[in-house]
Amino acid sequence: xxxxxxxxxxxxxxxxxxxxxxxxxxxxxxxxxxxxxxxxxxxxxxxxxxxxxxxxxxxxxxxxxxxxxxxxxxxxxxxxxxxxxxxxxxxxxxxxxxxxxxxxxxxxxxxxxxxxxxxxxxxxxxxxxxxxxxxxxxxxxxxxxxxxxxxxxxxxxxxxxxxxxxxxxxxxxxxxxxxxxxxxxxxxxxxxxxxxxxxxxxxxxxxxxxxxxxxxxxxxxxxxxxxxxxxxxxxxxxxxxxxxxxxxxxxxxxxxxxxxxxxxxxxxxxxxxxxxxxxxxxxxxxxxxxxxxxxxxxxxxxxxxxxxxxxxxxxxxxxxxxxxxxxxxxxxxxxx
Length: 336
Prior knowledge:
Layout: E1 3-12, E2 16-19, H1 20-24, H2 31-38, E3 42-45, H3 52-67, E4 76-80, H4 91-99, E5 105-109, H5 115-128, E6 134-141, H6 152-155, E7 161-170, E8 175-183, E9 191-193, H7 196-199, E10 213-215, H8 217-238, E11 248-251, H9 256-265, H10 277-280, H11 287-297, E12 306-313, E13 317-324
Parallel strand pairs: 4-5, 4-6, 11-12
Antiparallel strand pairs: 1-7, 2-3, 6-7, 8-13, 9-10, 12-13
Helix pairs in contact: 3-4, 8-9
């Protein structure tokens, strides 16, 4: 069986920065209030005309370049997003075409903030089964377009961005070691954006022009604090490792207090938990791949390191994966 190794990575962020000081002029809040409760100081906002696909394409091109392959080598493109450019076709199809990945299949995956880790594990399964050898996995969202900027409970949290990785088949002892996925639809009302069902019984004249995100912050926090440690521990055990074997936890970036709780639950020093929340906020499905790309570019990921990727979000949903990092040290990609 082939192993599924990360060989390329890239990220893309909008140029516009929305600081806490900027938010003070939009909603009743303050920098001190936001930082003390979330750890966020600023976030990026997509420009007018800048779409999820635009950010996803830029991140994808960087990931492919890092992997040292051509877009024509790709067998499959998976985009995790809840803010597609269109209801149809999929954003993945747009990316596949714009990359020139003519022989690749393409589809979107919707699991909100858990989306990238879900898609990452789906891609790994295709590779481990021997179906495909080169898969591009993208997490991209522009959630700020779903925010009500009079609601300080949501508008302070989110930013826009995209991250991407290339997974390739290899016979080397690296790559994805375990997979844990889960969901509990009883928590759907904790975090949601209305869709067609919300307007199906209303006259067209009363349809909302734009659906805004609704969140029960207390319940989301309670769920997140519990699940991040639980699912990470399960993935570590499934990989046959212990907490002492873990070199870096790369979690979904939602709230610094959640990350602190994860550190305590897993008995990990805080420096073993990667965070860029302060600068980018919660970028939904993009948060984990942005962290991967940033950590790799800064030289924080070395061959042989054990990483835990973990995410949680609307659904409610959760996902985790343990990865033995190989990176660009993998010189020959082949089926095992």
